[in-house]
């Protein structure tokens, strides 16, 4: 691959970031779109205390765009010049575009939640096997997907009457909560820190003119009564501290773990054993990533 001083850099920042599959996904699409000499996607570990310097460096270094991951999706808001209305309502940013020195924040996480749910409830068609093959380093070509023509998603109220539990009140939890509320669902937020769950439930209750409930992780036994369970907690919490048991899950549910692990997470496994419909983390990773790619490439 031949790069030049004109090659534009897009960069994912977070802590940790070494595990990120975003560079693999984004650089693949740069190749597919025949722009690998014009764009490159890299990763940089940025701790919390260095976030202001990292954002300020975007203009100093001519960084074209950022992908934002844990733990910066909320704290970056105050460091940007403009925030897209959707990202403002979500209260979190996962995508930044440097538009002639003006840093603009967007959110595509909610689309990474919304599109897989539409696949189940509205029969939206896309080949899951190709997404799984890509992240398993198997051959795929994504001929069915054109980033230049990604659709605008207007969900309507396809989740009206559905009870949804979102586990986690961080940046990804905000994106998931926004997605299901925009789709008409009844939402309950479960979180380890109850004050954070309370704050988010009050904020979204006001924004959406509805009642959003909240619970602590000690109440995960209540998950059995929900139609959809979405886990957005980090890897560390998912396998070590969130103790969702088989008795909390039933065959009529949709279980969506936004955490991605090769071979699936423990939550994926027990959900399948109980006969529930399962949405895997790579589906969210894929869809938030392709819409993020569209922003970074300035495709209208």
Report on this structure.
The chain has 300 residues and is of the alpha/beta class. The protein is 35% helix and 19% strand. It contains 10 helices and 12 strands. The chain has helices at 22-32, 51-61, 85-90, 109-121, 128-135, 171-182, 194-208, 235-240, 266-273, 281-296; strands spanning 8-14, 39-45, 65-68, 82-83, 95-99, 102-106, 163-167, 186-191, 213-216, 228-231, 254-257, 277-279. Helix 4 (109-121) packs across helix 10 (281-296). It starts with 7 loop residues before the first strand and ends with a helix. Residues 236-240 have low confidence and may be disordered.
Give a quick set of tags describing it.
10 helices, 2 domains, six-stranded parallel β-sheet, 35% helix, 19% strand, 12 strands, Rossmann fold, 300 residues, alpha/beta
Number of domains: 2
Treating each run of at least 4 consecutive H or I residues as one helix, how many helices? 10
Cα separation of the termini = 27 Å
CATH architecture designation of the largest domain: 3-Layer(aba) Sandwich
Strand content: 15-25%
What can be said about this structure in brief?
With 300 residues, the protein is of the alpha/beta class. The chain has helices spanning 22-32, 51-61, 85-90, 109-121, 128-135, 171-182, 194-208, 235-240, 266-273, 281-296, and strands at 8-14, 39-45, 65-68, 82-83, 95-99, 102-106, 163-167, 186-191, 213-216, 228-231, 254-257, 277-279. It is built from ten helices and twelve strands.
